[in-house]
Amino acid sequence: MSLREEFVRLATRSGANRRELCRRFGEAGVAGLVDRSRRPKRSPRRTSPELEAAGRRGAASRYRPSERPDPERLPAVEYPAGDHVRKLQDRGWVELRGRRLHVPRGLRGPSVALRPLDEDGRWAIYFTTERVGTVDLRVSS
Q1: Cα(first)–Cα(last) distance of the chain, in Å?
Q2: Is the domain covering 84-136 a CATH 2.40.50 domain?
Q3: What sign results for the dihedral spanned by CA atoms 60, 65, 71, 76?
Q4: Which neighbouring-strand residues pair with 123?
């Protein structure tokens, strides 16, 4: 088969890149018409073979159970005296001084403490020792 016939055969394939074929044909002759790898010659940021091999093993091969035993039941949260302790309702609200206050969804179910911040009706919401929000009773909901 002539060089021209080989070029035409490759160029008429579905999805052929004719520009690339012309470049290869012009600079390398028949050898330029052979498929070449697209793999880069150098990859300075390539992942090491050891890490690639570890990734192929999957997470299950790296799993180790904790040496710490889990408690049968978590201890009850205790808040200091003077806190207004409320259990969150299913819809994410607590009641304080006759008003329903909405609390973030992640805290639905456990108890939270409400602590007054000042005399103006601002309250802090605590879950265990972490302050998770502030409520202002002066603002209508």
Answers
A1: 84
A2: yes
A3: negative
A4: 116, 135
* Average pLDDT, integer, range 48-53: 77
- Does the structure show a pLDDT above 70 at 39? yes
In sequence order, what are the residues at sequence separation of 6 or more whose Cβ sits closer than 8 angstroms to the Cβ of residue 136?
A: 121, 122, 123
What is the model's pLDDT at position 52? 76
pLDDT tens per residue, range 73-130: 877 888 888 888 887 766 667 777 777 777 666 666 678 888 888 777 788 888 888 8
Sequential DSSP letters for 38-84: -S-S--TTPPPHHHHHHHHH-HHHH----SSPPPSSPPPP---TT-E
- The CATH 2.40.50 domain(s) of the chain lie at 84-136
Amino acid letter at 3?
L
